[in-house]
């Protein structure tokens, strides 16, 4: 039984997918499975995946009709066998010690529910930037510490972290979301976590390509997508005051940037105001944290 499952959605990446696969094959840690999900790619990506699967039985390939990154990741989740799961985009790659860092961390922090590790943005560029990287290990052992950590490190991609498979029972990415599916998925996962570990070693290399859904989607579609994100978060997320404040900060400015109708912005502001303030008042968070979170909400409110 593999300790970790690496799930890779694959679509139109024939020039990049080999580098991605090789980065897993070159890991110093070897007890893994690599799940490649060909999302109906029209190029040679699927064939390249099959070639690698013939060479290493730890590699599994699934082919499906095109349905988007969420549906591809869901196929990976349906077939994963590892105790831990991580996601890797097919045009990105791992540092050779990434999975070893996971294994070492699990051996020490046996109760961890999620493990974060650094992302290098725009890898391969001289302007590449390491995100939210601490010089030491950060350990959070309760809901308050976890929420405070995310307040100071608001990164919600599914990549760059390890998930405990047993906590993912019944959880899947929503295929209706074209952008922000990571945020909804991770926020929902956080409500199941009681401990978190952030490590300074191990690395996810994110390689920017100008073919993103964000760049091609029309503004009105993005607005609809953002409102759907709010609806899909679920009541458990809104009960967490800091998470609610972070969502407020993320969504409202984007709606304004995309010229949503003012009446709709006002309606969702009132909705979020009620949720954020109620959750803050009822929480057992430190007074200082409550004040900072409420201030952030007010600042966003008047922008």
Provide a brief overview of the structure.
With 303 residues, the chain is of the alpha/beta class. Helix content is 46%, strand content 16%. The strands form two sheets. An eight-stranded mixed beta sheet has the order 3-2-1-4-10-6-11-9, with helices on both faces.
Structural class determined from secondary elements: alpha/beta
CATH architecture of the largest domain: Alpha-Beta Complex
Major β-sheet, in short? Answer: 8 strands, mixed
Shape: globular
User: What is the number of helical segments per DSSP (H or I, 4+ residues)?
Assistant: 12
Q: Which ranges are low-confidence, i.e. pLDDT below 50, for 5 or more consecutive residues?
A: 212-216, 297-303
Instruction: Give the beta-strand count.
Output: 12
**What is the CATH homologous superfamily assignment of the largest domain?**
Spore Coat Polysaccharide Biosynthesis Protein SpsA, Chain A
Mean pLDDT, to the nearest integer, reads: 82
- H-E string: EHEHEHEEHEEEEHEHEEHHHHHH
CATH class term of the largest domain: Alpha Beta
State the helicity in percent bands: 40-55%
Distance between the first and last residues' Cα: 52 Å
Count of folded domains: 2
Radius of gyration: 20 Å
Strand content: 15-25%
In CATH, the topology of the largest domain is named: Spore Coat Polysaccharide Biosynthesis Protein SpsA, Chain A
